[in-house]
Structure formats: C-alpha cells, structure tokens
Amino acid sequence: MKNSLGILGGGQLGMFICQAAKKYNIKTTVLSDNKNFSAKKFCDNFLIGSFSDKKILDEFINSSDFFTIETENIPITVLKLIEKKKKIFPSSNIVKIAQNRLKEKIFLNSIDGVKTAKFKKIQNFCDLESNYKLFGKIGILKSCEMGYDGKGQHLINDKNINKFKNSDLKDYILEEVLDFKKEISVIVCCSKRNTILYPPVENIHKNSILRESIYPAKINNTIKKQALVLAKKIATNLKLQGILAIEMFLMKNDELLINELAPRPHNSGHWSLDFCKYSQFDSLIFSIFKERLTQPKPTNSCKMINVIGKDYKNKNKLSKKYKFYDYLKKEIKELRKMGHYTFKN
Ligand code: ADP
Ligand code: MG
Fold first, then answer.
1. Are 85 and 235 contacting, i.e. CB atoms less than 8 angstroms apart?
2. Does 196 contact ligand 1 (Cβ within 6 A)?
3. Cβ atoms of 48 and 72 closer than 8 Å
4. How far apart are CA 80 and CA 255, in angstroms?
5. N or C: which end of the chain has fewer CB within 10 A?
6. In this predicted model, what pLDDT tens digit does every residue of 22-54 receive, in sequence order?
C-alpha cells in the first residue's frame, strides 16, 4: 500500500499537511530550503537544501510514493523532474499556470463564463509609461512570479511613475484597480472519483495581506452558488487532482471576478481545522491516497484571524474562547504570518 508523502516546503502549510497525514498513518518527508522550518516537529523525515540541488532532490524523490507542495513558487523544472518518476498533487501543469499571474489570467479568461480584472503585460519601463493609465488614473503593477502577501506589487499613478524608471520590469503585469464590494475565496479538492468544495469565506485584507476570514461569507445564495460553479469549472478545466484555492472579487454589480489561484491549501481555509469535520488538509490527504473524498461538513459559523509580526507577542493574552495556532517561526518579522486563531462567531 502506498503510504508516504513528500512535501515541497515546510512552512505553516507544510506543518498542517504533516499533522493531517499523521492522523491517517501517512509518512511525511519535507524538503525545506530553511533549516528552522515550521513543519520540523511534525514530519517523519526531512531534507534541508535547495530545491534545485540534484542530489538532495534525488533523495527526496526516492523518499515517498506521492508528492505535494505548500507553495507555488517552485521551479517547474524541479516539479518536472519529480514527475518523471512520481506523481505530484496538483500536477506541474497546474502549478505552472498558478505561479505566473500572466499565464493565470490568460488561462482564466479562456474559460467560458470566467473573468478577471483587465490586465496588460509589462516588459519594461516604456510599456509601463505608455499603459499605466490604461484602466484608470491608477493601476496595480505586479510581478508575474514569486509575489505573495502583496509583495512585488505597487500602485502606479502620475506622482510615482518616474520612480520605476530604473527598475527591472521584465516580467510584470499591470492590472485594473477594482472597486470591489468584498473578497471571497473557495477551496476545491478533487480525487480520482469526485470533487468537493469548501463553501465561500469572506476575506479581509489590510495592506494586501490577509487579516481575517469569516465563515460563512455574507453573500446571498445566488452569489454563493455562482462562486461554487466558477470554482468547479476552473478545477475541471485544469483537470485538478489535489487541492486548489480560488480568490475572487465580488463587484458592486454582483459579478464575480477571479483574482488568483493557489494550487495548495490556503490561509483562508484554516477555519476548516476547527469548524469542519474534514479540514482542507484532511481533504488534500484524501485526494492523494483515497479514491473518494468526503464532504467537509462545516459545523459552525466562525472567524479566523491571522497573527502578524509583533502582534505575536500578545498571543498569551488571548482568552480561552480562541484557539491559537503557533507557526513556530524562528523570528518575528514585520508582516510575517506568525500564527492564527479561530473562534465561533
Ligand atoms: P498575493 O499573491 O500577494 O495574495 P493578490 O493579487 O491576491 O496577491 O493581491 C493581494 C491583495 O491586494 C488582494 O487580496 C486585494 O485585496 C488587493 N488587490 C490585488 N489586486 C487588486 C486589484 N486588481 N484591484 C484591487 N485590489 C487588488
Ligand atoms: Mg492573493
């Protein structure tokens, strides 16, 4: 019987994947490029080194039956090497789309009935200068790859455009700034035989970093259904096996635009650890090791709040009403996600 899982990355998502795997007697091996990683205490084995180190990668490939990722920021060549011998959930083709904002937007808009913000490919300052007002007085410039928690993003207007004159803008995208009503997300998980969906949650960001997720999202039933239909459609088009989070903007006219895809468990799904019979991490494990998935079965309305940067120092002041999860990060950094807590709402 196949019962071992290799995880690329050992941050908090890797940590929760290891904890879920343990419940179902799956042995985990984490490959981490950082020696103090969150999952260290919870994995069965680990390898430390660069994802691109051939020797370490070979050892990693031999360590497990199946593979998964906790970040989309992994060179596709690495995933392809693993795929020569073993299967990764989700596949490298999906990660390739989700790790590049331009590929992602082109893919999403190619699906009938799926839309995103308007966008324009940017390759140099000249492109930016001639296009930054294409969608309004302000545009959002985003690096196509490696961005997360708002990193690599800038609002561009008349006042600051010249600051970018000497920047390397080879691989960027300019997006329309959307005046949305709410942000929501849906997590979809597919096994060989079936698909399950976690109902939409409402996400509150500050400075482009997720602060709170609220289950259930306060949206009407029509929008909820539409969000689930969109998520399923995207998963079907990707031939997803594994888990995928889909961030969406709810516009003032009730239209849903897709923001981005994350081919892994997602921060906005952490509520499921406490308020679902099967969390997003359980479902990921099932999608890899079982033929059929079980419905997540939410148990209560709730909230998840991220503990970011120095707020971590106040973690002991939280009353018993809150369940705190420590990401065991070695040091506090500004805007670093240090932990989260959940509570009934
Ligand atoms: P990240 O990979 O950093 O999460 P996102 O593209 O999701 O990147 O951007 C982070 C946040 O910034 C979003 O959740 C949203 O709050 C805001 N944002 C991103 N793109 C837009 C946009 N086109 N219009 C308005 N707000 C945006
Ligand atoms: Mg995002």
1. no
2. no
3. no
4. 37
5. N
6. 999 999 999 999 999 999 999 999 999 999 899
Question: Is the predicted pLDDT of residue 150 greater than 90, yes or no?
Answer: no
List of long-range contacts for 275-278, beta carbons under 8 Å, 24+ apart: 275/215, 275/299, 275/300, 275/301, 275/302, 275/342, 275/344, 276/198
Structure tokens at 70: 């906790």
Tokens of 3: 């019962």
Name the 3-class secondary structure at 48: strand
Looking at residue 290, what is its pLDDT? 96
Q: In what order do the strands lie in the sheet with 180-190?
A: 256-262, 242-251, 180-190, 195-206, 209-215, 302-308, 337-344, 323-326
CA distance 161 to 168: 14
Nearest of 38, 260, 307, 39 to residue 150 by alpha carbon: 260
State how far the Cα of 337 lies from the Cα of 41, in Å rounded to an integer: 18
Does the pLDDT value for residue 1 go beyond 90? no
Cα distances from 291 to residues 89, 234, 268, in angstroms, run 14, 21, 26
Q: How far apart are CA 46 and CA 316, in angstroms?
A: 30
Q: What angle do CA 32, 34, 36 make, to 5 degrees?
A: 105
Beta strands in 252-315 (DSSP E): 256-262, 302-308
- Cis, bond preceding 298 (omega within 30 deg of 0): no
User: Ligand 2: distance of its center to the CA of 148 in Å?
Assistant: 7
